[in-house]
Structures are given as C-alpha cells and as structure tokens.
Amino acid sequence: MRTHRVSVNLTPQEFARLQELRPESMSDSAFFRTLLREAAPISEAPMTRMAALRLLSESAQAGKVAAQIALARELREGDRDAVREWILNG
Predict the structure, then answer these.
(1) pTM for this entry
(2) Which helix (H) or strand (E) holds 69?
C-alpha cells in the first residue's frame, strides 16, 4: 500500500520529455516509480580525492577537454605527494 504522495510541477519542455520517454501503456506515476526503482543507488561514502583523480584521468584520456583542464589544474595545485603516490601506485 502506498502511503506517501508527491506532487511535481513540470515545465512544458519537461512534460514533453516525460511524454516522449514514457511508454504509452504506462501512467506517469508508474513511470516515475520505475525510474526510482531503476536509479543507481547513491554511494553513502564520500568520494576520495584519489577516486576523483582516477575519474578525471579516465575522462581526460577519453578526450574530454574539461576533464583534461581540471586534471591538469589539480595536478599542478593539489597535494603533490598524494598525486605522486597515485601516479606510482595507480
């Protein structure tokens, strides 16, 4: 039994996108519940600096210019000992 109700106000563009994504056989409510069930769980632990550097590095290697700039800035301004350890130990 569902005991909680949520009301959402959408812009015309958001509503059009909802109608575009939602299967015709499914109600808006059922579609939102499906999205909630299928959403990736939020990590409870905060991301470590090394994990963030690893993600930036992967994105930079994939050609993402923003990641390349952010990684270069972090490597230049960040904790040099930690970065050196990360580079040496992967």
Answers:
(1) 0.42
(2) helix 65-77
